[in-house]
């Protein structure tokens, strides 16, 4: 499994792991805005907006592991301010260039570089210890704030895809946990002292639907194999007391 490779490869080289991940996703940033990634971002934002009473005069959002900001831009009209944070300098640059090109004030939307160890959305399966990240993010929440996560459901369908991907490049560096179960998410929320944890199925996308969007090539050889699959996404959320 890719996750095991990452742990073994990196037991005494945590900094190397973080740097390799950041370098890889800096490369991804250059071609990240595809039909496929934009469609996923729209669906993520739609579910996030359903699960919290956004108020454009006061809701402030930290979008952790924001990538190039596709979800943040979808949420922006419903918020007072969004701060994106990402480990990859290339993602931070792409995000902030997009803000500038669209004439948006950096007071309302900007991205910062953050080290995952020092410290939000569909990248938990890239983190070495998501429980630590959950604790760190919960500390940044205001009272009555909500931590929301969208990621892959850990099921046979998702595992099929990642098993194919693990034979391709970078499988010994990028930690892929193949998604999460409801139980894992609830346990992470509880470990971070968050209240009322909920995990719900969000949306799904079949291989045949993925192929209709430019940019589906990010899933590599899995798209050209005989294996049929559907990616299932969950939304998980919990509140700060």
UniProtKB/TrEMBL annotation:
Gene Ontology terms, MF aspect: transferase activity
Coiled-coil spans in chain: none
UniProt keyword annotations, A-Z: Transferase
Pfam families: Methyltransf_23 (PF13489)
SUPFAM superfamilies with a match to the protein in the record: S-adenosyl-L-methionine-dependent methyltransferases
Alphabetized CDD domains for the sequence: AdoMet_MTases
Superkingdom field: Eukaryota
Cited InterPro entries: SAM-dependent_MTases_sf
Protein name per UniProt: Methyltransferase domain-containing protein
């Amino acid at each position: 499994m890719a996750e095991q490779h990452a742990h073994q490869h990196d037991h005494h080289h945590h900094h190397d792991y973080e740097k390799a991940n950041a370098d890889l996703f800096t490369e991804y940033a250059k071609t990240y805005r595809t039909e496929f990634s934009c469609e996923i971002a729209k669906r993520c934002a739609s579910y996030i907006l359903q699960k919290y009473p956004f108020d454009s005069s006061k809701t402030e959002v930290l979008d952790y592991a924001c990538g190039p900001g596709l979800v943040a831009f979808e949420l922006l009209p419903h918020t007072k301010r969004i701060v994106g944070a990402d480990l990859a300098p290339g993602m931070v640059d792409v995000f902030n260039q997009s803000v500038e090109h669209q004439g948006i004030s950096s007071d309302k939307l900007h991205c910062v570089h953050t080290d995952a160890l020092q410290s939000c959305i569909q990248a938990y399966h890239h983190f070495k210890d998501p429980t630590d990240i959950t604790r760190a993010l919960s500390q940044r929440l205001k009272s009555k704030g909500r931590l929301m996560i969208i990621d892959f459901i850990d099921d046979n369908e998702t595992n099929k895809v990642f098993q194919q991907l693990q034979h391709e490049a970078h499988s010994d560096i990028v930690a892929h946990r193949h998604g999460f179960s409801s139980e894992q998410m609830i346990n992470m929320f509880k470990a971070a002292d968050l209240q009322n944890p909920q995990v719900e199925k969000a949306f799904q996308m079949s291989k045949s639907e993925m192929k209709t969007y430019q940019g589906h090539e990010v899933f590599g050889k899995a798209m050209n194999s005989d294996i049929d699959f559907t990616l299932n996404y969950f939304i998980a959320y919990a509140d700060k007391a």
